[in-house]
Design brief:
The protein contains eleven helices and 13 strands. By secondary structure, the chain is α/β, with parallel strands linked by helices. It has a domain of about 210 residues: Rossmann fold (3-Layer(aba) Sandwich). The protein has a seven-stranded parallel sheet with strand order 3-2-1-4-5-6-11, with helices on both faces. Helix 1 crosses helix 8 and helix 9 crosses helix 11. The longest helix has 22 residues.
């Protein structure tokens, strides 16, 4: 019998991409999501439309904050491993509604850890974020770096959830792997994220908002590489480890805009705006540990990844036009 894997946040960008990959590899997937309205739920429905046709895929709708619901899921299915991706995401929105991030990203994670402990789950994988590094003086970021100055409620919530994972491992011996994702992009990316947003605005001839000087740098990681990192971490059982899942290549904001514009064949219009509170000037992953222990090897350069994203974006919008 194939192992049953619970993926929380399984209809989102990373989650649905992971579910597709697990199904390809003959795992039984329990996809848990509450279809919240952080962005349009219809997008999430479309993300799992193909997975729903697969015999090894089960979609359960509910909230990780609902303990009774979680107990029912864990008692009903023979769950072997948990890949916890459910979260309220976004640095800037967290400045507006910080308590949501406490509820979902911290309380939700603890709720899931409690049930995982009770049902003696064999492995718990937690999807964290490069945001936990805050303004880090050492580039690239190492998993061993001191991370005690996050600069957004989102980052602080993710770090708090990491600490709860460490505590539950210490107290109850749950094997836990924490994955710190670095600016993931690709098909199905959330519409509020930079690459998706910039592509949409440029396609419509609208100006691009550029916060600050445009010199901020990010470690953009293509979705297929991230999914590879999650799957390989699932296939290697460690007591407790933290891994950076990034591309280890820096791209300036202005350079990113130029790449997207070139792939679209347009001249970008820029709208200069002040720097945003909570935004870090740079993210860059040292992935030597992930390479050594997970055989993680990202292989998608930014130009190729952007090209794949734009191809998906155009096809999606052509389908929407034909359906209307």
């Amino acid at each position: 019998m194939p192992a049953e894997i619970l993926v929380t946040g399984g209809v989102g960008f990373i989650g649905s991409s992971l579910c597709d990959r697990l199904l390809e590899e003959d795992y039984k997937v329990i996809c848990l999501d509450n279809f919240n309205d952080f962005y349009e739920p219809k997008i999430k429905e479309a993300n799992v439309a193909s997975a729903l046709k697969h015999k090894n895929f089960t979609l359960v709708r509910g909230d990780i904050l609902d303990r009774e619901f979680l107990e029912d899921v864990f008692s009903k299915y023979d769950i072997d491993k948990v890949i916890h991706l459910a979260a309220i995401a976004g640095v800037r929105p967290s400045l507006v509604t910080p308590t949501k991030y406490i509820d979902v990203d911290i309380k939700g994670t603890v709720s899931l850890l409690e049930v995982a402990r009770k049902y003696e789950i064999r492995q718990f994988i937690f999807g964290s974020s490069s945001s936990v590094y805050g303004i880090n003086s050492r580039i690239p970021f190492l998993e061993e770096d001191i991370v005690d100055l996050q600069i957004s409620p989102y980052a602080t919530a993710k770090r708090a959830a990491e600490l709860f994972c460490a505590t539950y491992h210490h107290l109850y011996g749950i094997p836990i792997t924490i994955l710190r994702f670095f600016t993931v992009y690709g098909p199905r990316q959330r519409p509020d994220m930079a690459i998706h947003k910039f592509t949409r605005l440029m396609s419509q001839g609208e100006p691009i908002p550029v916060f600050g000087s445009g010199e901020s740098e990010r470690d953009y990681t293509y979705i297929d590489d991230v999914v590879n990192g999650i799957v390989t971490s699932m296939e290697r059982l460690y007591d407790f480890e933290i891994f950076n899942i990034g591309n280890s290549k820096l791209v300036k904001l202005r350079e990113l805009i130029e790449i997207i514009a070139a792939k679209l064949g347009v001249e970008p219009k820029l709208k200069q705006l002040p720097e945003q509170p909570g935004d870090v000037p740079i993210t860059c992953a040292n992935i030597s540990k992930a390479k050594r222990m997970l055989e993680y090897n990202p292989s998608t350069p930014i130009e190729q990844g952007i090209e794949k994203f734009i191809k998906w974006y155009k096809e999606k919008n052509e389908n929407l036009s034909s359906d209307s």
